[in-house]
Each structure stands twice: as C-alpha cells, then as structure tokens.
Amino acid sequence: MQKRDYCGNRPTKLRLLFIDxxxxxxxxxFGDKRKKxxxxxxxxxxxxxxxxxxxxMMGYMINALKQNFPKIEIHLVAGRWCKDxxxxxxxxxxxxxxxxxxxxxxxASDFAKFKLYLTDIIAFISIQKNQFYTHSFxxxxxxxxxxxxxxxxxxxxxxxxxxxxxGGFLDKEYFIPQQNSHTxxxxxxxxxxxxxxxxxxxxxxxxxxxxxxxxxLHLDTPFFMIFPEAGADNKMVNHEFWMRIINILVExxxxxxxxxxxxxxxSRELIIKLSRxxxxxxxxxxxxxxxxxxxxSLLEKSRGAVTLDSFPAHLASAQTQTLCLFKDxxxxxxxxxxxxxxxxxxxxxPSKNIKDFRPNMNIGYISSFEDGDSFKDIIQGLENIxxxx
Length: 389
What we know:
By secondary structure, this protein is α/β, with parallel strands linked by helices. The chain has two domains: 10-192, Rossmann fold (3-Layer(aba) Sandwich); 223-384, Glycogen Phosphorylase B (Rossmann fold, 3-Layer(aba) Sandwich). The protein is elongated. Strand 8 (257-260), helix 8 (265-276) and strand 9 form a beta-alpha-beta unit. The protein has eleven helices and 13 strands. The strands form two sheets. It has a seven-stranded parallel sheet, sandwiched between helices. A six-stranded parallel sheet has the order 3-2-1-4-5-6. Helices cover 32% and strands 16% of the residues. It has helices spanning 10-30, 52-68, 83-86, 110-127, 183-187, 189-192, 239-250, 265-276, 292-301, 311-317, 372-385, and strands spanning 43-48, 73-78, 94-97, 133-138, 155-161, 172-174, 223-227, 257-260, 283-285, 304-308, 322-326, 342-346, 361-365.
C-alpha cells in the first residue's frame, strides 16, 4: 500500500487509511496494468465539487491548458451551485451536474442531500457508457473529489490527488507540498505532467463570462462595490467594522455611490444601520438583486471593491482594484490571482512574511481584525488602493 499524507483530522485519516487498504488491494488485482506515459490530450474530463472560488481559479488553469492544446475537448463534472459560472462558459464543451452531498450547502437534510447525490451519480454514469476520455483531472486535494467514480468511467489516464481517499484508482497521484503554497501551485502538478509550465505568479486571470447589463441598478455616477459576506462565519466581521469602512468612502467629496452586495439577513441588517447614519443617499442596496453575470459586469465598471475571503474577492481582483480582507483564512493558499492592483490584509500567521506574491499586489499582516491598532493598517490599505488621501 502506498504511503499517503491525508487531509483531515485523525479520525478522518484513519478512516481513509482503512478504505484505501481495500482500494489498493482491489486495484492490484483488477486494475489496468498498461503503461500510460505520454498520452496526447484530446478529450478531458474534469471533476470539481468545490464552490465558486475553486471553480473560478480552476478556469485560469484550463485557459492555459487550452492555449497549449487548442483542439482539446473539455467536459466538466461539478455541483449545480456553480451553474451560473459554468453554464455559459466557453472553456467547457459539456457540463454534467453531480451535487456532492458533502459540499452541498443547501438547507436540505443530510438524507436528502445524499439521495440527490446518488441520483446524480447514477444518471451521470449511465450517460458515460459511450464516452471515452484520454485524461481525467481532479484538482481537489482537500474536501471531496471524484476519485470514487473513476472505476465506472472509460478514461485512459486518470490524474489527481490521493489526499482525501481512493487514490489507488488514479494512474498519476499527486500530494500536497510540505511548504506553504498557493492552491494553484498545488493543483497544477497534474497539468505539469502534460509538459505545461504554469505557476501562481505568472498565470493570467481571465473571466469567460458574457456581459449582462440587464440590471445595472441605474447607476449614472462612479461607484464602489462592497461584499460584506463570507462563506464561513469565522471569516466574517461585525457591522461596526463595515460601517467604519463605508463611512470613509461615503465621506469622499464626490458623488461616488456605494453598492452593497450580499444574500443574507446580515447584509440587510447592515443596510438598515447605514440608513440610520444618514448616509443612505450614497448607498445602493443590491442585496439579492444581482446574478453572477451582473456582478461581473458591474465590477468591470466600478472604481473598486472591498471584500472578505470569498468568491467575490477572486472575481473582483480580476476585474478591478480591490481591498481583500482575509480573516481567519488559509493565507497564501487562497490569495487572489489579480489582474488589477490589490491590497490583501490577513491574519494568517504562517503567511506572515509573504510580501512578494504577484505583481500589483500589496500584502499586509495584522494580528487581529478586532484590534484598534490593526484597523489603522486596514484604513491605510483602503486609502492607498483607492487613492483617498
């Protein structure tokens, strides 16, 4: 059995070790023993059961792949929660939806999620009976991937990570580097096997989405965009924090609007508090009103954005100048891939000394987002990125 360094806590690692003992035994007896080196990529099946930020950054790598192999056909397996980002995306020739029950963030019960997952798998495998792929790639090295589906598919070379189990089904199995690394530098190992030289410092962020100007909120003046929500509660900050940030932008002696984006009650409560501060004339309430396509179109026209560690941070950094506030995140691993000037302020201690990651990116470390002295650094970053002083 191959030695693997699994992702997860001790019980998870022991469970994966137990499962992989039997997977490796099964593959050693029934697996394909053919040598599979140097297969030219013609038709690729991608798996990505992550969320919007994971999908966005994977697109940067797939764009680089297509630049090198322009005739390649690419099929994608993903959760339906990424539909708005991938349905009209020219990177993918065909999309299949499998809602992995472990990454499904809907309010449905665990049983309902698992039932939907099984239904999706059965439908997907039945469609794949007459499909053949030269390669499959799964870039997920933590969380949950599609390795368990590989024995049911007709793929010449299966490439991915064994860090979350079922690595024995892979023909080329990759692992996480010991040093602090960006997620693209971890994931791209599989594409490097095709002779591509890609890294997080040089890769270009390109958004393959059509413009949608059907609802631009009737904005006829310059505007900033604020994204006060994150995907996890520990990455959020309180309303008072945002009110201080927004008040600085409101006090600018011009007619710039402040567009507040969000989906939850948290952002609606923030709007109510802002209205009590008599700055409602400059505030535009966009909560629950915009699609991903519309947000993308607005970002292109905006003066800049302020975000937490979330999908909007990655989308905004590719479209406009952005202040990214990464509280209690993974530091360098998920820093945005920027095209425009970006200031990243974080409290991830292992990434404390990271200063030179990408061009036009200024990185600052603070010990706490609740500390008054640290907030001065945040204000300085805000003033610098948007040239307020």
